Amino acid sequence: MGQDHTKQQIEKGLHLYQSNQTEKALRVWMRVLEKSADPAGRFRVLGCLITAHAEMGRYKDMLKFAVVQIDTARELEDPDYLTESYLNLARSNEKLCEFQKTISYCKTCLNMQGTTVSLQLNGQVSLSMGNAFLGLSIFQKALECFEKALRYAHNNDDKMLECRVCCSLGNFYAQIKDYEKALFFPCKAAELVNDYGKGWSLKYRAMSQYHMAVAYRKLGRLADAMDCCEESMKIALQHGDRPLQALCLLCFADIHRSRKDVQTAFPRYDSSMSIMTEIGNRLGLIQVLLGVTKCWMIQKELDKALESIEKAQELAEGLGNKLGLLKLHCLCERIYRTKGQQQELRDHVVKFHECVEEMELYCGMCGESIGEKNNQLQALPCSHFFHLK
């Protein structure tokens, strides 16, 4: 298969993919991969396969193609190709919640400075690195990376990257409970989609709506949360976007739980859990199990709540997700206080404070811990936070 034919087939695949004929597109691209002798064409088709598998939530396949792409990049002996393939490797590991590996591959990208292409990729590298630090609950470093990614987006006038960073910042502030900012950033992302996103994939709109839904729920604006989540879910279903479907189901379940409608929440949590398990989103599974635990607590089924906590704790320890552990100790504290088991209660109080210390989640001004309740926060240029009040 010559260069021109390879190009035509890649374009044909893209056209099919954009018109939602994903399986047909994959077959076209796989044929190119088998038959093409052109390394640059193979590199590009591997990029298409990586993106498609990422959006379908087939993260292990995404990783497999990323590894093949690195070998192809080495054949081409071009630092730009190599940087791009290491970024894809980093992103595959980020999706599989292998956060230490993600950070290490991102650092490799940043050390391999090629030409202008690599410099344009730096924003995406910083974003992926920020998401990994957030997964490990290393908040200061996560914020540093997101701010860096935002600077790259502004300098290169890259609105798509800016939109993605705004969604990650929404997630960041939702985790440390500054719900005003958790809403502000995805609203900004939605604005970018409206102003510049005519030719973009609909996933950008869906992503911003989902993060808005999360913030609205945390602010107690449940009807708004439901509207945004329904819009996001509609797009996720149209596009066969399994990862986003799982997140929307989790958000629906959380909204029902906020309304104390546990019977409607449980089946949503179950559906979310089965997709999260299928795609390997262990960070998402921790969130699902936290929601399930709170439902059991509403129903005063404390032993069932403890069973969910045990599963979540195993996952959080495996991932190194300290915020997940902190939340679990907090729930255990409430359960053992209700049960009147003083020794267990004391153990979890101690572990809770150890988590706060480890994550440095306290205000440099007033000394109170950050992330216990909704509070407006201000970040300094060094990425330390303090309470705005």
Automatic annotation (TrEMBL):
Intracellular or extracellular location(s): Cytoplasm, Cytoskeleton; Postsynaptic cell membrane
Membrane-related topology note: Peripheral membrane protein
GO CC annotations on file: cytoskeleton; neuromuscular junction; postsynaptic membrane
InterPro entries linked to this entry: Postsynaptic (IPR001237), RAPsyn (IPR052480), Rapsyn_myristoylation/link_N (IPR019568), TPR-like_helical_dom_sf (IPR011990), TPR_rpt (IPR019734)
Domain spans labelled Rapsyn myristoylation/linker region N-terminal: 1-80
Residue stretches spanning the membrane: none
PROSITE patterns: TPR (PS50005)
Keywords, ordered alphabetically: Cell membrane, Cytoplasm, Cytoskeleton, Lipoprotein, Membrane, Metal-binding, Myristate, Phosphoprotein, Postsynaptic cell membrane, Repeat, Synapse, TPR repeat, Zinc, Zinc-finger
Positions annotated as TPR repeat: 123-156
Pfam families to which the protein is assigned, alphabetical: Rapsyn_N, TPR_12, TPR_8
Keyword Metal-binding attributed: yes
SMART domains: TPR
A Gene Ontology molecular function term of the record: acetylcholine receptor binding
Family label: Belongs to the RAPsyn family.
Function in brief: Postsynaptic protein required for clustering of nicotinic acetylcholine receptors (nAChRs) at the neuromuscular junction. It may link the receptor to the underlying postsynaptic cytoskeleton, possibly by direct association with actin or spectrin.
Name of protein: 43 kDa receptor-associated protein of the synapse
Species for this entry: Ciconia maguari
Lineage: Eukaryota, Metazoa, Chordata, Craniata, Vertebrata
GN (gene name): Rapsn
